[in-house]
Design goal:
The strands form two sheets. An eight-stranded mixed β-sheet has the order 6-5-4-3-2-1-13-14, covered by helices on one side. Strands 7-8-9-10-11-12 form a six-stranded mixed β-sheet. Helix 7 packs parallel to helix 8. Helix content is 28%, strand content 28%. Mean pLDDT is 92; it is low at 18-24. By secondary structure, the protein is α/β, with parallel strands linked by helices. The chain has a single domain (3-14, 37-280), classed as Metallo-beta-lactamase, Chain A (4-Layer Sandwich), CATH 3.60.15. It has helices at 3-13, 16-20, 83-93, 110-113, 116-122, 136-143, 197-208, 226-238, 252-261, and strands at 43-51, 64-69, 74-77, 102-104, 127-131, 148-152, 156-159, 162-169, 173-181, 185-190, 212-218, 243-247, 274-278, 281-284.
């Protein structure tokens, strides 16, 4: 795909802040009408492709992208801010994005969707799942890259043991990814958690009846007070979360509080981190 499409796509993202101001909230955490049978998978291999916590010569722009391999499908969760960053880190980490079946975009901010242009050339047949509340402008920009686009409002099973967590309002509208590991519990992957990471975890635990084991991603708490951060951590622990891995917009204070006061729950990750999650637990590979 030509560089001009990349440029047009990136420039289009500059208009998003003004458009987001006019979005109307609709979604809150509600008691589910019935429990979703999510099923389970044997394992997930997880690689942090983009994160602003630097490591070992990899590019670390402000943004997030996480590559997930499962027995059923391969998923890319968010794409970082720029195609060239995604391409560079994939090359160094030896990650082949042509294997991607599904793309889950947490929300419409540019630091989460800006790398789509590179993916369009690597996995043109991938299906992209977006929050239904995402602006029509951004949806159309994604369609211009010739992806099949699916809009998600309620929590949706996309494969055995794997679900897109239905949108909540931050602003903006935001969704997440949940993997249910057999005999272990839920791995919840979040982008920025504008609606609140504890609310997202509460929602999927309530809807599936499964215990959350690991929550990983951006928690949007860089400017939060110590009391607020501690409250959110305690909420996650109360939900049964064993491990918390704050990256991207979680903030240095969140990471410091985790390392000091919740060391047994803390997974310290960065760009390039690799995890294996299976029925016996979570293991860091780098």
């Amino acid at each position: 795909m030509g560089k001009y499409k990349y440029i047009i796509f990136i420039l289009a993202l500059a208009l998003l802040p003004a458009m987001i101001l006019f979005r109307i909230p609709r979604s809150e955490v509600e008691e589910p009408k019935h429990v979703i049978d999510i099923g389970a998978i044997e394992y997930a291999n997880i690689t942090v492709l983009i994160d602003n916590n630097a490591f070992n010569g990899l590019r670390s722009p402000w943004g997030i992208s996480i590559y997930v391999e499962t027995p059923n499908i391969t998923i890319l969760f968010d794409t970082g801010p720029r195609p060239e960053d995604l391409e560079y880190n994939c090359r160094l980490l030896k990650v082949d994005l042509s294997k991607v079946d599904i793309v889950v975009l947490s929300h419409e901010h540019g630091d989460h969707i800006g790398g789509l242009g590179y993916l369009a050339g690597q996995a043109p047949n991938a299906t992209v799942y977006v929050p239904s509340g995402m602006s029509n402008f951004v949806k159309n920009e994604i369609r211009k890259l010739n992806f099949k686009l699916i809009e998600v409002e309620q929590t949706t099973i996309i494969s055995e043991g794997i679900a897109v967590v239905g949108q909540l309002y931050g602003p903006p509208y935001e969704q997440a990814l949940a993997l249910n590991i057999k005999n272990l519990g839920l791995v919840v992957i979040v982008g920025c958690s504008h609606p609140g990471v504890d609310k997202i975890v509460h929602k999927i635990a309530l809807e599936t009846g499964e215990k959350p084991y690991l929550v990983l991603g951006g928690f949007h708490m860089a400017a939060a007070s110590k009391n607020k951060i501690t409250s959110v951590i305690l909420n996650l622990v109360a939900h049964g979360v064993n491990y918390i891995a704050p990256i991207h917009c979680s903030g240095d204070n969140f990471r410091k509080i985790m390392s000091k006061d919740f060391r047994d729950k803390y997974l310290e990750l960065h760009v390039g981190s690799r995890l294996i999650v299976n029925s016996t637990g979570v293991y860091l590979r780098g």
